[in-house]
Amino acid sequence: MTSELTVLALAAILLLIHVLLAGHFKTRQYSTAWNIGPRDGEQPPLNPIAGRLDRARGNFLETFPLAIIALIGVTVADRTSEITAIASWTWLGARVVYLPVYWAGIPVLRSVIWMVATLALLVVLGALLLG
User: Fold this and answer.
1) Which of 56, 71, 93, 99 is 20 to 30 Å from 111 by CA-CA measure?
2) Cα separation of 74 and 80, whole Å?
3) Which one, of 79, 56, 46, lies nearest residue 88 by Cα?
4) What's residue 46's pLDDT?
5) Which one, of 18, 87, 4, lies nearest residue 54 by Cα?
6) Are the beta carbons of 4 and 75 closer than 8 angstroms?
7) From CA 63, how far away is CA 18, in angstroms rounded?
8) Distance CA 53, CA 127 (A)
């Protein structure tokens, strides 16, 4: 299996972690009855930690499709290389670090980490498009 596909599989686990953490903290705030119920009606705003984890999950979901396209794309097109492997691992590492940094509410560092992850994906996409 290519490094890019290994990163993709690990990223799926990271997605699950995002979903479970955000769900856990929402449930702590809104109750188990809310979680297992129909979730109809308005809820008060999330507290800061639950809100950050929910936004971090949303951010990951916004960029994960791009990662899927890039990582599967370079593998299928047989355009993997040491550069795409390094960029893939850099993306995953940045996304792993992003979660606790966002959770802790560190704004500037969070944005820098996001930029590193995005640039790493652009490297993989560049390899896919330009060879």
Assistant:
1) 71
2) 5
3) 79
4) 96
5) 18
6) yes
7) 13
8) 32
What pLDDT sits at residue 41?
85
What is the structure's pLDDT at 131?
83
CATH class in words for 3-130: mainly alpha
Render the chain in DSSP notation, one character per residue.
--HHHHHHHHHHHHHHHHHHHHHHHHHHHH-HHHHHS---S--PPPPHHHHHHHHHHHHHHHHHHHHHHHHHHHHHTT---HHHHHHHHHHHHHHHHHHHHHHHT-HHHHHHHHHHHHHHHHHHHHHHHH-
Q: At what angle do helices 82-104 and 48-76 cross, to 10 degrees?
A: 170
Give the start-to-end residue ranges of the domains of the chain: 3-130
Identify the pLDDT of residue 130: 95
Cα of 47 vs its chain's centroid, Å:
21
C-alpha dist (Å) from residue 121 to 55, 63, 67, 83, 94: 20, 9, 6, 11, 11
Regions in the chain scoring below 70 on pLDDT: none
